[in-house]
Amino acid sequence: MDITLVEVAPRDGLQNESHPVTTADKIELIRRSVAAGLRRVEAVSFVNAARVPQMADAEAVLAGVPRDGEISYAGLVFNERGLDRALAAGVDEINVVVVATDTFSRRNQGCDTAEGIARWERLAARAAASGLWRTVTIAAAFGCPFEGEVAPAHVLDLIERVAAAGPDEIALADTIGVGTPDRVRRLVTGLIERAPDALPRCHFHNTRNTGYANAIAALDSGVRVLDASIGGIGGCPFAPAATGNIATEDLLYTLDRMGVDTGVDLGAVIDTAAWLGEVLESPVPALLGRAGRFPAAAVS
């Protein structure tokens, strides 16, 4: 079984960090990710810099990243202006978020869920005409910080509605880390049934220590694309306590031990996480860098 990891530390990771990170260090994080073998990178977000100042230098970041034809760079886009910027900056993919609940959608995007779907439809049409890979992410698919439980039937209905615009990929996001494997299996199975033409993808947070179990449940249910963040950094600035993306290195350790091929060099990712902790002036949340690999690497 081969799977693809989407490295999201440069976007979803850094957007929630209070410590300022220079454009040069963002580019270096992406360069190191690519050197480790990651081939899809969610690099930037084209959003209002007043609301997410960590992403204010999106164009400068994309101007400095490695480009060899094999790497696909994604940008998060919320509106027409964001898509204009993304196209001008030369992204390969766009990711448009539709939030599963009205309350969170209004706080995150300034509109309700229905308008979020309408925005996605408009952006999807323009992006398709420009030849971009189109991902739509259903955020808070497993629970909302403001409205609480999100009914699976509601999420399945949203899947059908966003699928009508012909996405290349539909991602289910556990934005606040409340999902459990049983819910993951149910929603992923429903996603595959209701949107058979879209690639299924999942985005998990480990806020309540269920993220890795959820990732394996997603793989067992047919997902072949998983998001992860080097060092386990990140979260959503508009959701209280939405911390803890699953860490790329911790997930890789599990997958490597299971014999799952990702094409990513675990040692290089561990080294990058250590470097990132120095940049942020704080140890990263991931555990593998502390515990080490098993069996331990031979000393030459």
From TrEMBL:
<dbReference type="Pfam" id="PF00682">
    <property type="entry name" value="HMGL-like"/>
</dbReference>
<keyword id="KW-0456">Lyase</keyword>
<keyword id="KW-0479">Metal-binding</keyword>
<comment type="similarity">
    <text>Belongs to the HMG-CoA lyase family.</text>
</comment>
<dbReference type="GO" id="GO:0004419">
    <property type="term" value="F:hydroxymethylglutaryl-CoA lyase activity"/>
</dbReference>
<dbReference type="InterPro" id="IPR013785">
    <property type="entry name" value="Aldolase_TIM"/>
</dbReference>
<dbReference type="InterPro" id="IPR043594">
    <property type="entry name" value="HMGL"/>
</dbReference>
<dbReference type="GO" id="GO:0006552">
    <property type="term" value="P:L-leucine catabolic process"/>
</dbReference>
<dbReference type="GO" id="GO:0046872">
    <property type="term" value="F:metal ion binding"/>
</dbReference>
<dbReference type="GO" id="GO:0046951">
    <property type="term" value="P:ketone body biosynthetic process"/>
</dbReference>
<protein>
    <submittedName>
        <fullName>Hydroxymethylglutaryl-CoA lyase</fullName>
    </submittedName>
</protein>
<feature type="domain" description="Pyruvate carboxyltransferase">
    <location>
        <begin position="3"/>
        <end position="270"/>
    </location>
</feature>
<dbReference type="InterPro" id="IPR000891">
    <property type="entry name" value="PYR_CT"/>
</dbReference>
